[in-house]
């Protein structure tokens, strides 16, 4: 792998008197025994220029001649340019490559995959060294495709050894670091060559009809809305069930603030602490508590049958404001409605009465802090915004392959090792770098929550009527835990304590199973046949439950994960013995995965905790062996018949939460543009309007309004389906059953900073809240006998489509004129939409935006940015962008095409 034929040391002393200041090379006449020094390595890493270039995703160009007809490949190139000669060959460059490299197509370099996405590039004996200013290119073929510039992970690093064979401290190659765009605050990757060829670089297959969302495309999309500030006068997000204006009653000004009628707290059974968070949000937009403020009184809501938690009545009149509710969340939500009704510019509300109640009892947001860690403060800010928009479940994903993020009493290795990624091939002090994390522990993508942190998060959530649902994914997606417990085992064995060493061991050392997870790990799955695995699971759950108890919010739901299990036990001797001798009736190796889920689910139920899992793992279980109150999060893609599994699981009687990727995965790009952040395996254009359009009560009906990931129509057949034996394999929801809620998902593989995560979550979270709370009039009623839905069927009628368009016009104006300004005041770095624009044949620029009310700017080449108000004559290349209401941040700039 390494060559030892050093022709010169890297970066020999710049004090060589034989070189004049103008020379760009260093002497190459040194002894072949010369070797790396730390300073030389650092200097080379600082000066080497790396450029990553996607060449083509087209199978006919990228795949080998003997490839299968459906095989998908890409060709990419990495350029290396050194400003000075570096002829030394004894080095390794490590880098993250999301799609595995299959073949290197030139002979000077070798690339091998180390683990997951971590790859290692080394020179071959054909490598002639880096010559000053000369570009060295490694061309390679990879698996599947690369459709986003953010696919190309940062922080390449170089490793070498000194003269004594001791490895020097690794050095990050400076040119591969991310930078922060001064206008948008977003990460940019200067080492990535911009995509320019839509067909070769942004097309998945020859059937891919998705159109790159350039300015002209956005202009056509944005025509669906227009500037209409009158629509927002009484607008409220999320939309209430009923809202009636009071006639002949003057509007109420909150410019002097509000004063609380504390004497009414007793009759309302209200604790002042329950509404402090809601009052703080109201104060943040300019409505504090004041002796001269409008009087706000509280009362108990008259009990009615099936009154949902969170219901409230709100009356706004010139005599004062009256809020009625039956529990704390209702009072908080009423105050949140006041906050939403208020325009920050005039702080006035028209007199009205609102009767409101949520559509779904489960209104959730999932955040992955495992792949890349995100700060405690980010979570607290998120909880504030969730409460502001009446969301009530935080699904916190803290354990996965790439990181364990919660301190567990008695198992310090989980955070000492599992929370950190660094360059330690033995994984004795950390786990291997992934996702461009680089070689050092000291990076923000590493980290964990202490026990005290977690208690603070729970208490903060509880004060906002939000339940925290913890999740450590098992039995797959568990590499961080496995490597942590491996280190624990080695340390205790070295001390001679074999019993303690084996107590929480998670894998069979004699398992020879060859497997690969979706993320290309071959060692990330717990061995589900080992009792020590269940000791570990029980220990983790017990300790987490104790933290919840200390925080004052008992643990009532725990998410097992249970998804994407690769099957790491097929050749495990322990599993073979388990099959031969178990008392649980498990007679086939294929059943040990479901056995794990069923056993852990019942373990949780015995503790009084509801078990939850992702729909694929849950579908493998026997419902008769599962607790009746089990929860399933359905993450199946609707266009891939995902409605079938959703219906099957709700028919099981389980708590069924819709989490469908093409509408609820907020780590997907907002628009079909390779510069947008995020994964894209189920959607390349998931904007706020798309979420708003979601019909969660009739999943298959969405086939009438949506296209699949390649921009093609699809059909959803919800009629009963039977196999060759006449057994029903899928069918409609049983009458009387329904979904229990919806949840947005944020996975963090490509999202490295808190700012990037906020960009991806907001304002999509607001549309999640809208669909979780309000059932729109235009949603197609569900047909319990089953039906077929496609682009030609007419269940989604013309009248329904018109009503949806009318409602979106109001919502888009609400966001642009009213709501985003409140996110500004909260310091939330939401995504500012890219601007639609065209230039006609007379040279006139016309621009529009998804959220009317936001300011648009344009710039002619060589000139300053100008405010766009109306169509204007322009010359040369023109750029457009939008600005936040507070003027502090800009949206991403587009060239008008």
TrEMBL record:
State which Enzyme Commission number(s) the record gives: 3.2.1.52
Highest classification ranks of the organism:
Bacteria, Pseudomonadati, Pseudomonadota, Gammaproteobacteria, Alteromonadales
- The Chitobiase/beta-hexosaminidases N-terminal domain sits at 46-217
Gene Ontology terms, MF aspect: beta-N-acetylhexosaminidase activity; polysaccharide binding
Q: Give any single GO term for biological process.
A: carbohydrate metabolic process
Q: Which UniProt keywords apply?
A: Glycosidase, Hydrolase, Signal
Q: Which residues form the signal peptide?
A: 1-18
**What CDD domains has UniProt attached to this entry?**
E_set_Chitobiase_C, GH20_Sm-chitobiase-like
Indicate what this protein is called per its UniProt record. beta-N-acetylhexosaminidase
Q: What stretch or stretches form a coiled coil here? A: none
What's its catalytic activity? Hydrolysis of terminal non-reducing N-acetyl-D-hexosamine residues in N-acetyl-beta-D-hexosaminides
Q: What class of enzyme is it?
A: hydrolase
Task: Tell me which InterPro entries the record gives.
Answer: Beta_hexosaminidase_sua/sub, CBM2/CBM3_carb-bd_dom_sf, CBM2_carb-bd_dom_sf, CHB/HEX_N_dom, CHB_C_dom, GH, Glyco_hydro_20_cat, Hex-like_dom2
Q: Which SMART domains match?
A: CHB_HEX (SM01081)
Regarding protein family, the annotation reads:
Belongs to the glycosyl hydrolase 20 family.
């Amino acid at each position: 792998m390494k060559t030892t034929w050093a022709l010169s040391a890297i970066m020999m002393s710049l004090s060589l008197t034989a070189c004049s200041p103008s020379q760009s090379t260093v002497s190459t006449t040194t002894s072949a025994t010369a070797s790396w020094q730390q300073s030389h390595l650092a200097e080379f890493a600082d000066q080497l220029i790396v450029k990553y270039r996607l060449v083509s995703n087209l199978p006919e160009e990228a795949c080998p001649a003997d490839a299968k007809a459906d095989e998908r490949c890409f060709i990419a190139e990495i350029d290396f340019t050194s400003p000075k000669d570096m002829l030394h060959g004894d080095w390794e460059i490590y880098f993250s490559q999301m799609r595995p490299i299959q073949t290197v197509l030139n002979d000077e370099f070798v690339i091998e995959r180390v683990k997951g996405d971590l790859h290692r590039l080394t020179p071959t004996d054909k490598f002639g060294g880096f010559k000053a200013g000369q570009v060295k290119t490694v061309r390679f073929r990879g698996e599947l495709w690369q459709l986003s510039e953010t696919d190309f992970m940062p922080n390449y690093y170089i490793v070498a050894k000194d003269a004594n064979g001791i490895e020097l401290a690794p050095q990050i190659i400076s040119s591969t670091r991310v930078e922060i765009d001064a206008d948008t605050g977003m990460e940019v990757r200067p080492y990535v060559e911009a995509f320019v060829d839509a067909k070769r670089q942004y097309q998945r297959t020859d059937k891919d009809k998705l159109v790159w969302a350039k300015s002209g495309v956005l202009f056509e999309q944005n025509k669906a809305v227009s500037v209409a500030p009158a629509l927002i006068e009484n607008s409220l997000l999320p939309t209430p069930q009923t809202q009636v204006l009071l006639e002949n009653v003057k509007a109420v000004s909150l410019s002097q603030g509000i004063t609380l009628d504390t004497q009414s707290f007793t009759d309302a059974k209200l604790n002042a602490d329950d509404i402090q968070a809601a009052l703080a949000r109201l104060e943040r937009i300019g409505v504090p508590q004041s002796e001269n403020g409008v009087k706000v009184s509280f009362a108990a809501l008259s009990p009615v049958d099936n009154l949902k938690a969170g219901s409230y009545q709100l009356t706004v009149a010139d005599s004062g404001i009256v809020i009625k509710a039956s529990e704390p969340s209702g009072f908080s939500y009423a105050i949140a409605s006041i906050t939403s009704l208020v325009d920050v510019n005039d702080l006035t509300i028209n007199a009205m009465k609102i009767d409101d109640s949520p559509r779904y009892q489960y209104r959730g947001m999932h955040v992955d802090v495992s792949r890349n860690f995100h700060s405690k403060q980010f979570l607290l800010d998120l909880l504030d915004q969730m409460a502001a928009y009446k969301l009530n479940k935080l699904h916190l994903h803290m354990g996965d392959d790439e990181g364990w993020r919660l301190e567990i009493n008695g198992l310090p290795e989980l955070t000492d090792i599992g929370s950190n990624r660094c360059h330690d091939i033995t994984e004795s002090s950390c786990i291997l770098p992934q996702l461009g994390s680089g070689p050092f522990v000291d990076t923000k993508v590493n980290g964990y929550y202490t026990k005290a942190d977690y208690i603070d998060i729970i208490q903060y959530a509880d004060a906002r009527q939000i339940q925290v649902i913890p999740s450590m994914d098992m039995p797959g997606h568990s590499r961080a835990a496995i490597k942590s417990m491996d280190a624990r085992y080695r340390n205790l064995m070295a001390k001679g304590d074999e019993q303690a060493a084996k107590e929480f061991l998670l894998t069979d050392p004699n398992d020879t199973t060859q497997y690969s997870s979706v993320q290309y790990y071959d060692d990330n799955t717990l061995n589900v046949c080992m009792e020590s695995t269940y000791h570990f699971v029980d220990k983790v759950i017990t300790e987490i439950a104790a933290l919840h108890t200390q925080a004052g919010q008992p643990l009532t739901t725990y998410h097992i994960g249970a998804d994407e299990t690769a099957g790491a036990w097929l050749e495990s001797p322990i599993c073979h013995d388990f099959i031969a001798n178990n008392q649980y009736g498990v007679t086939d190796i294929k059943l040990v995965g479901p056995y794990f889920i069923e056993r852990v689910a019942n373990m949780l139920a015995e503790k009084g905790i509801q078990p939850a899992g992702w729909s694929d793992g849950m579908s493998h279980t026997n419902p008769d062996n599962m607790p009746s109150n089990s929860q399933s999060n359905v993450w199946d893609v609707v266009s891939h018949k995902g409605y079938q599994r959703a219906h099957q699981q709700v028919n099981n009687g389980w708590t069924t939460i819709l989490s469908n990727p093409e509408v609820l995965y907020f780590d997907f790009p907002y628009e079909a543009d390779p510069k947008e952040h995020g994964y894209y395996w189920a959607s390349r254009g998931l904007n706020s309007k798309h979420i708003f359009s979601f019909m969660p009560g009739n999943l298959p009906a969405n086939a009438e309004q949506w296209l699949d990931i390649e921009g093609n129509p699809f059909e959803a057949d919800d009629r009963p389906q039977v196999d060759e034996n006449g057994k029903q394999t899928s069918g409609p929801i049983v009458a009387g059953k329904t979904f229990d809620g919806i949840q947005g998902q944020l996975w963090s593989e490509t999202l490295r900073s808190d700012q990037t995560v906020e960009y991806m979550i907001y304002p999509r979270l607001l549309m999640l809240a809208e669909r979780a709370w309000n059932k729109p009039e235009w949603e197609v009623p569900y047909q319990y006998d089953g039906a077929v839905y496609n682009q030609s069927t007419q269940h989604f009628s013309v009248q329904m489509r018109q009503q949806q368009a009318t409602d979106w016009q109001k919502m888009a104006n609400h966001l642009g004129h009213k709501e985003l300004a409140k996110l500004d005041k909260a310091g939330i770095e939401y995504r500012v939409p890219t601007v639609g624009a065209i230039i006609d044949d007379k040279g006139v620029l016309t621009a529009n935006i998804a959220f009317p009310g936001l300011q648009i700017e344009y710039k002619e080449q060589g000139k300053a940015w100008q405010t766009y108000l109306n169509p204007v004559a322009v010359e040369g290349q023109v750029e457009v962008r939008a600005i936040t209401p507070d003027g502090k941040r800009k949206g991403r700039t587009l060239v008008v095409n």
